[in-house]
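Researcher: Go.
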Amino acid sequence: MAVVSGLAWLVFLPNTCYLLTEWRHFLEVLGYTDLHLRWAHDGDARLVLMVLTLFYMCYSGIGVLTFTLAIRPVVALARERRLKVWVWGMPFFLLMSVGVYLGLILRFNSWNLLNEFSQVVDSIVEILQRPTLASYVIFFAAFLWLMYAATDIWIDGFVKRFNAKWPH
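Model: Structure:
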């Protein structure tokens, strides 16, 4: 049962990272409303721009926080087994980045691993055959790792500050 739960966790985890990509909708709104041009002289535009910015910051923040909180127990388990973070981290964050690409660009959903497995695998192989695409996936994986590390440090500081007990 632990293996099935672990696989389900792994398959659905990229959905938390996906929330970081929602800024594209914010940029679309800026593009068709010109809020970024009107904010200086239009009070309503300024308010809308501030509310939208706050919304997308919170939305992305929730994604990063849930991503980090979901990984922390696995990191603790890896540390108990004396596994070096960089050894398992590289393939792990690459896998998360590939998952976001599959959902964001190719519009696959997590359950497509069950009902369209060969198409998902073919899409992953295609990444390896396209160097520019592969570099974007690698860059996003590094970004995810950096976001995880920063948020993990922030959580530790928050917990220490408030003297709370937190599994790590």
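Model: Residues 8-156 form one domain.
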